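#dry-run=false #mode=assembly
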Amino acid sequence: MSVFETKNDKCGFHKQFAVDINGNNTEFVFHEFENKWMLLITQLGKLPAFYNVAFDVKRDHRVLPFTHGPVDDPEFHVSVPVTMTCCMGVDSDEIRGGIQFLINKTAINKCPSELLIALGLKKIESEDLRAIAKVLENGIF
Amino acid sequence: MESCAVLQDACGDIAKIQQQQTPAAATPATASSLPFASHMAQLVVGSVQVTLRVLKMNGSTLIFLGTTDAERVDEFAMAMPSRPPSKQIVSTTFLGESGQSDSLVLANKLAMRYGRQFYVSFNLQMDAVTRAQFEAALVSYMQKNLEMFV
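#status=ok
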């Protein structure tokens, strides 16, 4: 005999909300699984592509200099080294650049394991990415 | 941006709340502006306890299935109906083992049954009997709570 029990019918993930980003309704979904973090960000109402991000160095050495946080000066900028694999959907340099930006600027780079991420933006512009990074910092991490 | 702190606390149907506050005639909802809806359920099939996480999007549904004590993502598959007049289902496994993974089989069945795109992550080790029981029970649960899936 099978028994079903609905434990929580409001939110199935650690975080799920929608925010207006420069006039576009943007959905955020975040969940920590045992072996992966999952982050979905989309303005399209669907998921255009999935990327799997593996971090190339140990967590404490990802952002240099670690004690002072990320370096924002373009001259001394150091990206968090990752290996990004497009699992499904359109693979574009713009999306890869957007994901790398979010990893550099937010606590995504503290992920202890791999990251499964979907980034579906109507236009990939620095203004939108900065706003999304701010939402991630305030609303998720 | 100031509303982020408020939004993170009220997890869930934020966009729906925003829509309710806005007169429908002034801003007709487009397909991409409809809010996502998610829910979680604990399913018990025999001695197996399963956690079901569902995200209903616009035209597609994402389902995670894992054991309650250790939720992992080892497999991920997607299936969707072809364009009419074809009635075939197009599917692929994009994380985990290639070929006929459990996620792929379940995604195919759901896409066929509901005529909708399904992402499925099936992370359970089951024998054939338990699996059949689980699938029957899952479909029964989905029928009872259809608005949460499609």
